[in-house]
């Protein structure tokens, strides 16, 4: 026993002197906790990176002080307001921080600052305007939400709204979350519910009416709800995309229509996504239903199947692995994607892919004020903002979708390579909500999925 | 049992011992109670809330859903497929991983540490990237397209082995590294063939580690989502993909609740079986004497070397596919353009933050998760390593042990949606807290830490503790002077591993991370979801970086904790 004892002790001392690890571990935890808790506030722990990215010479002091204040609250308690602000980045800092109008810093140029605060650090002339008069607004949206920071900063300055963006998965997940949290909503306003999920949101009463004056100039064309609970913001067409290069090399004429896709010369050339697991997949299915009718689509898909259509689970695997226009390993020159995809394949001033505009289904994205919003007035301002000319103009480059407002200019490449369909297919959202599960089930049985 | 028995055996003279004993008991109960409480709050409560939404109709429990759901043949076959693909994946992983564990933890050769790190790299790769890498290889136009494995179960199993192999090697290896080889030598000298000696001596001694590894791989594969979805092309479905579809696509909480309960029952059954197995095989693993007799290069070594080389080559093939594709530049040719682009915010600000910032987010969250998981996991292991005399207490410990594995076997969608509706009011309004990501990652890493640390703690010779105690050391001191030095490298290995797992964790993270604070895996998913060669290239470049970083961290942590060194003799 004693010999053991003697051997053990010195070793232990050595360990203690060297490491003292529980203390170290605790210290590390504390630091990390602090870091995680606070880096939402603009300037704090991520600050070293963020100030580097933003304008030279400015320290972003107003932002930092504001951010640190909120951060402290979040780390400690989880009072409702604090927690709301916490996850999402504070898109605007305090109103005083956002004051400097478009100074040289140009918010969008400061990439690192994106972690947390989007507001541009106040340049030389700090002129605080009316502080936070319209209060905080939380915008619930999907993961694809993307917007020019300067635009948001300008909006915050003009409206006095402090905007927090809270992304909640894809459009479907987001809608579901809104339905599930109806009694205690995640935010004040939503953007990104599309026409395939619209009825689910409307039926569950997660929205309240708001007729924005700005909707009169194009958004009204896509109205689906008499009481104005949803207002259209943008749209995109899901169409079969074609690899021009492949067809040129094979000296084969490109298909033009749904019917062409079932012809023998296009056997084994098309890859689509399963409507059960993919949103463009469902859109394409709905497009064929609209074109072939409720009795004809089943037969059409039987023909597609006989003609060797390949079904992948999602857009990623279809486009980046199986589509010849997206991958060298691809074997299929026809893929279901978006009308806005071709501009991404521009080489030497020419798009190597294009969309078949006779095979399009139109997805429309809506915004609305959430029922039970804490700040409905602020939420309405956000709806107006989404319909504003500036926001509408920025939509194509930021989110790959088309603006609903008439007269908004598209980027040059879009005008050239991403025209929209003249007569896209649509299906009544109520119909989609009612039949979604049955249709997908029927399709699965049909395709042996 | 341990110190307690020795102290009481020493007689009533040593009064202070009673005080210590009482204190220690309270301490032990607390050590087990804290993680259990955390699991109840962050896991059970949200899951049960969501299940309740599905099963209670107008305040009444409606069980007819079970009949409705399982009347459909499709649902029954889902259960069968879930079980068999997970079991097959786990068995394959063990068959390939045990030779690997032997080679990488019992044998010394140059480059061993690097090889260990490389074989663990896949663990941090986002599953969508792994799935795409396999699809690139296996698709009809891919390099292995002629094998005809695209959209087959074989592809799914291969991807599962690729992802989980490192886990088996590490879990089994960390036990094997400290295994006493004298019994094996005795068996051999008594005339047992190497195979027989391995089967009757070594394998039983590794029992706890092997059953632990099997359980974890099974759970990971039973709940694997991206792999099954993409490689199964939506045609092959498991309970997990179906729960996802019913919840996400249809918001059919009733069906989802039934399927989730089926998943829970399945997982619980597995854990009960494994616990029973473990009780049987749980002979105290004795620690390495430190005396290693030089052994001749035998047939077993050759088999292990061949199997592991083949596995390593296959791994390099898959990883190489990724690296090559990440180096392909948008304009044609090869170069580092994709990597350079990671410092930007991508085309049209697509990424919102540069990859470097996302990496910082990832590192911060993963480090916190690893620290949390190791502190809680080690504390828990200390308790679980006890062998109380009472049968009931032993059962209780076994139950706690199994309970901690539960989060691995339950769908991230269920937990994620449950979180939203359950933890929505003070003091638990965590719906949008940035702490959610590390907490979720720590929950996933916790069982791995326990599986790596527990066998080693159990193997510590109680006589050492008794010696320290009888020399007057209080319990904490005993732990400090006996357990810690011996288990230190297991802790180091577990910490590195927990970090790696947290770094690559995507399921829960994608549910919880917001786009302004994306982790690297979230960013990769975002990039890969957009057309454009540069976006795809950048996604793969980021994945390669993530894997390299993971390997580096593993190497450093293991070097610092001495996990690669042999422990000094006692």
Automatic annotation (TrEMBL), chain B:
* Cross-referenced InterPro entries: MetI-like (IPR000515), MetI-like_sf (IPR035906)
Membrane-spanning segments: 28-48, 83-105, 117-138, 153-173, 255-277, 297-324, 365-384, 396-423, 435-457, 494-514, 534-557
Which BP terms does GO give this entry?
transmembrane transport
Question: What domain of life is recorded for the organism?
Answer: Bacteria
Return the CDD domains for the record.
TM_PBP2 (cd06261)
Pfam families (UniProt xref): BPD_transp_1 (PF00528)
Q: Where in the cell is it found?
A: Cell inner membrane; Cell membrane
This chain's protein is named: Iron ABC transporter permease
Record organism: Nakamurella aerolata
């Amino acid at each position: 026993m004693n010999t053991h004892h003697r051997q053990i002790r010195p070793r232990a001392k050595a360990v203690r002197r060297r490491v003292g690890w529980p203390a170290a571990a605790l210290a590390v935890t504390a630091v990390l906790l602090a870091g995680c808790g606070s880096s939402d506030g603009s300037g704090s722990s991520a600050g070293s990176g963020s100030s580097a990215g933003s304008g030279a010479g400015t320290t972003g002091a107003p932002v930092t002080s504001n951010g640190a204040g909120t951060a402290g609250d979040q780390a400690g308690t989880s009072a409702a307001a604090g927690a709301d602000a916490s996850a999402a980045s504070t898109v605007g800092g305090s109103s005083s921080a956002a004051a400097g109008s478009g100074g040289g810093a140009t918010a969008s140029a400061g990439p690192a600052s994106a972690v947390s605060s989007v507001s541009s650090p106040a340049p030389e002339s700090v002129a605080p305007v009316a502080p936070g008069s319209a209060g905080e607004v939380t915008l619930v949206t999907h993961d694809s939400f993307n917007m020019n920071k300067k635009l948001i900063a300008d909006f915050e300055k003009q409206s006095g709204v402090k905007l927090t963006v809270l992304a909640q998965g894809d459009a479907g997940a987001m809608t579901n979350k809104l339905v599930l949290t109806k009694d205690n909503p995640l935010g004040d306003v939503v953007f990104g519910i599309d026409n395939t999920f619209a009825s689910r949101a409307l039926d569950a009463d997660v929205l309240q009416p708001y007729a924005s004056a700005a909707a009169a100039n194009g958004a009204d064309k896509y109205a689906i709800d008499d009481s104005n609970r949803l207002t259209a913001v943008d749209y995109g067409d899901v169409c079969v995309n074609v690899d021009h290069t492949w067809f040129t090399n094979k000296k084969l004429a490109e298909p033009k229509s749904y019917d062409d896709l079932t012809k023998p010369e296009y056997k084994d050339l098309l890859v689509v996504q399963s409507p059960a697991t993919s949103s463009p997949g469902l859109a394409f299915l709905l497009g064929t239903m609209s074109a072939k009718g409720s009795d004809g689509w089943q037969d059409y898909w039987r023909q597609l199947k006989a003609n060797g259509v390949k079904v992948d689970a999602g857009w990623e695997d279809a486009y980046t692995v199986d589509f010849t226009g997206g991958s060298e390993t691809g074997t299929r020159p026809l893929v279901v994607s978006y009308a806005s995809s071709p501009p991404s394949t521009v080489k030497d001033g020419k798009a190597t892919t294009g969309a078949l505009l006779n095979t399009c289904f139109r997805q429309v994205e809506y915004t609305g004020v959430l029922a039970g919003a804490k700040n409905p007035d602020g939420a309405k301002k956000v709806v107006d903002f989404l319909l504003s000319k500036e926001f509408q103009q920025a939509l194509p480059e930021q989110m790959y979708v088309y603006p609903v407002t008439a007269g908004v200019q598209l980027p040059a490449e879009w005008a050239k390579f991403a025209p929209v369909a003249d007569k896209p297919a649509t299906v009544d959202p109520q119909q989609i909500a009612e039949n979604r599960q049955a249709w997908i089930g029927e399709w699965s049985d049909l395709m042996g999925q | 049992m341990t110190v307690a028995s020795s102290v009481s055996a020493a007689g009533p003279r040593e009064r202070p011992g009673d005080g210590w004993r009482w204190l220690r008991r309270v301490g032990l109960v607390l050590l087990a109670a804290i993680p259990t409480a955390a699991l109840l709050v962050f896991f059970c409560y949200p899951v049960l809330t969501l299940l309740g939404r599905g099963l209670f109709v107008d305040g009444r429990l409606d069980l007819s859903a079970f009949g409705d759901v399982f009347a459909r043949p499709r649902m029954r076959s889902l259960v069968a497929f879930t079980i068999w693909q997970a079991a097959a994946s786990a068995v394959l992983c063990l068959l390939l991983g045990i030779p690997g564990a032997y080679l990488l933890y019992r044998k010394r050769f140059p480059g061993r540490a690097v090889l260990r790190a490389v074989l663990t790299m896949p663990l941090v790769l986002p599953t969508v990237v792994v799935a795409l890498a396999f699809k690139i290889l296996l698709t009809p136009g891919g390099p292995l397209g002629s094998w005809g494995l695209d959209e087959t179960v074989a592809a799914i199993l291969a991807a599962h082995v690729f992802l989980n192999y490192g886990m088996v090697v590490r879990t089994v290896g960390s036990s094997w590294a400290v295994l006493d080889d004298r019994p094996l030598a005795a068996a051999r000298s008594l005339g047992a063939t190497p195979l027989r000696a391995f089967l009757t001596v070594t394998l039983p001694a590794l029992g706890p580690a092997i059953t632990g590894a099997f359980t974890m791989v099974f759970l990971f594969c039973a709940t694997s989502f991206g792999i099954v979805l993409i490689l199964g092309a939506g045609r092959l479905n498991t309970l997990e993909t179906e729960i996802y579809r019913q919840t996400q696509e249809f918001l059919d909480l009733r069906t989802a609740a039934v399927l989730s309960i089926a998943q829970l029952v399945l997982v619980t059954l597995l854990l009960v079986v494994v616990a029973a197995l473990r009780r049987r095989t749980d002979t105290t693993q004795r620690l390495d004497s430190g005396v290693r007799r030089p052994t001749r290069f035998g047939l077993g070594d050759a088999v292990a070397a061949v199997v592991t080389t083949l596995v390593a080559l296959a791994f390099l093939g898959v990883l190489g596919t990724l690296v090559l594709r990440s180096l392909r530049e948008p304009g044609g040719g090869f170069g580092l353009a994709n990597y350079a682009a990671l410092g930007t915010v991508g085309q049209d600000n697509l990424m919102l933050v540069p990859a470097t910032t996302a990496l910082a987010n990832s590192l911060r969250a993963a480090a916190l998760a690893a620290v949390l998981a190791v502190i809680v996991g080690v504390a828990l292991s200390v308790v679980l390593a006890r062998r109380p005399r009472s049968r009931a207490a032993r059962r209780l410990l076994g139950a706690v042990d199994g309970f901690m594995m539960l989060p691995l076997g339950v769908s991230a969608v269920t937990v994620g949606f449950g979180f939203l509706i359950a933890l929505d009011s003070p003091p638990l309004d965590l719906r949008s807290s940035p702490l959610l990501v590390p907490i979720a990652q720590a929950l996933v890493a916790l069982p791995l830490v326990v599986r790596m640390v527990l066998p080693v703690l159990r193997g510590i010779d109680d006589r050492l503790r008794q010696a320290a105690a009888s020399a007057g050391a209080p319990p904490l001191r005993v732990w400090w002077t006996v357990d810690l030095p011996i288990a230190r490298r297991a802790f180091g290995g577990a910490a590195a591993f927990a970090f790696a797992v947290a770094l690559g964790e995507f399921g829960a993270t994608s549910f919880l991370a917001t786009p302004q604070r994306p982790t690297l895996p979230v960013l990769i998913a975002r990039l890969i979801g957009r057309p454009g060669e540069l976006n795809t290239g950048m996604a793969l470049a980021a994945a390669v970086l993530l894997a390299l970083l993971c390997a580096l961290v593993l190497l450093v942590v293991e070097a610092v904790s001495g996990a690669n060194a042999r422990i000094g003799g006692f």
